[in-house]
User: Fold this.
Amino acid sequence: MPILLPLIAAALMMLVPARYWPAYRWLGPVATLFQVPIAVWLIAQAMGNGYVVYALGDWPAPFGIVLVLDRLSALMLMICAVLATAAHLAHQARPSEHTRQFQVLFQFQLMGLNGAFLTGDLFNLFVFFEILLIASYGLLLQGGGPSRTRAALHYVLLNLAGSSLFLIAMGVLYADAGTLNMADLARVVSERGPDELILVQAGLMLLTVVFALKSALLPLHLWLPATYAAAIAPVAALFAIMTKVGAYAVIRVLTLTFGLEGSETTPIISTLLVVLALATVAAAGFGALGSVSLRRLCGYLVVLSIGTVFASVAVLEPKALSAALYYMIQSTLVTGALFLLVDLIADQRGPIDDSLQLNGPPVRNPALLGTLFFATAVAIAGLPPLSGFFGKLMILRAALSADFAPWLWGTLLVGSLLVLLALSRAGSRLFWSTDGEPLTPAPVPLGALLPVMLLLAASPLLVVFAAPVHAYLDQTAAQLANPQGYVLQVLGGGNPKGAEP
Assistant:
């Protein structure tokens, strides 16, 4: 359903004649909204059954295409559904931007994202990656203009290079292992000796590099701030989850094929990830501090969040995976809220837009927008009592036993300080260090405020319901640390005893 619903909605919208399109604008928002109850139902399925496998055409794995639902994929579907619903609501508040192209591309984007979270096959992971990327190319160009065209060109070229490496990695894996089904690949790795896995390990390490590239880890991260700053707000908000697709793919492939322990390749990948992740956190922190516009600052915050997630994943322990997932939920939703909020602030500043220059004109409606900005900054910077603080605290505690713990602690704390300084600087220039006559007050549309509040509400809710959320994430991490259940279920061994932690 998460794949078919947006596919059918997009097809129906393309079939509607142009003269009847205004009467069918509701199709996109309704289809997007239905993703939320579907995601809730699938989380219940994952909690009750451990694993749910669907074989397309009833062709058994590894010969056919399989979709696999577990706790991790259900969680990612929920994050995507909530973020997409808020982004679509924000778009509905801007009638001037209502186009059939946006609605159709948005649904294809959701199809690609949901398919990437559900597929059990590396080749179909590539296919869904391409679907979401092609849709994102069109979404990025919504609104036109030279800055969007330039950003889209850089974005397309980088992702074409990444897709080429993806194909090469899959070719290496298929040539040596004879399969691209992730469960079957895990079986091959477990049955071979270390000397027989050189090509497989090389292919999987190349895949890790590809996913790191698509996640905007250093040194290939500079495209993201410019790209996200150029996109319209609903698109930039939805893009907040795109870098997390790379993190999801690394977690899935790493835990399934190599496991958290016992593989000679695991420490190599762990070292690679932690070096790239910590360097990304440091670079993004300084980039945020030096940003001259609020949208570019938001882009660097996305980069910093993905670096933090990868740093926790590199610890390679269940409690670190649980902490990474908790932080991923809050950072994705809160940065999405910030992108939508930046658009409201820019609208209230007239021609100066989102510039952070000194002594700009006062923001209209400063009490409302200032309060929302303050709450968002607290959540992103990791200050108590919101969920950002608990997410980073969980990561720091989980990393205590790691060899690189001092580096991780130092980098994450310094990165948090830089983010706090950057957001404090931005807030003071937006709401305090102003000059000139205030602009004529303009009301903030309620339809544009609701999506921001919806996403911001996730931060206190993650604190209030920390116990059940933490229990779910701990069980998700334990499930990932026990890949035998996944392999047996996909390859036809039934739901093994102990598959559901």
